[in-house]
Amino acid sequence: xxxxxxxxxxxxxxxxxxxxxxxxxxxxxxxxxxxxxxxxxxxxxxxxxxxxxxxxxxxxxxxxxxxxxxxxxxxxxxxxxxxxxxxxxxxxxxxxxxxxxxxxxxxxxxxxxxxxxxxxxxxxxxxxxxxxxxxxxxxxxxxxxxxxxxxxxxxxxxxxxxxxxxxxxxxxxxxxxxxxxxxxxxxxxxxxxxxxxxxxxxxxxxx
Length: 207
Fold this sequence. Notes:
Blueprint: H1 5-9, H2 13-23, H3 29-54, E1 58-60, H4 62-87, H5 93-117, E2 124-126, H6 128-149, H7 152-173, H8 179-206
Antiparallel strand pairs: 1-2
Helix pairs in contact: 3-4, 3-6, 3-7, 4-5, 6-7, 7-8
């Protein structure tokens, strides 16, 4: 409309963006922390389903789950800060991606090292019955969240979790001789199915 960008945005675009963001309705601290905590719980639940699939007998390491949750909270805050810097142009995108990958590797190695050296503290073995019951409860939680959120990512995680549950139950109740093969084959099939569901739901939203 004939208005120059300098006149519209001013000489400091970042200050204008900060002003616009400041005027937007803000999430309360409690709701934000609750969201991050919920995402951490989802991650811990997926870790349990993976243990249920690949670990026979099933050994639960509560301290490892706590470390996963704590590290996720720290990691998510750092990634949020990092990409906010990139969005303001204070950091180039390749550097942001590189630091994100390094941070993820550090996060995974902290969990692995803690599980190796300290995970046995307070650990306990679960019988097949209790292991299956807990896995079903985790999956029901995923189903409730997928139904309430209608989010394609949550639905995809539900499909993946169901694959882990079926694999773990098959190994324990049907044929333990195929444990090694099925322990890797079915989750890989589940990953492919998860990506397919994610893609189909995305196309449905675009239509």
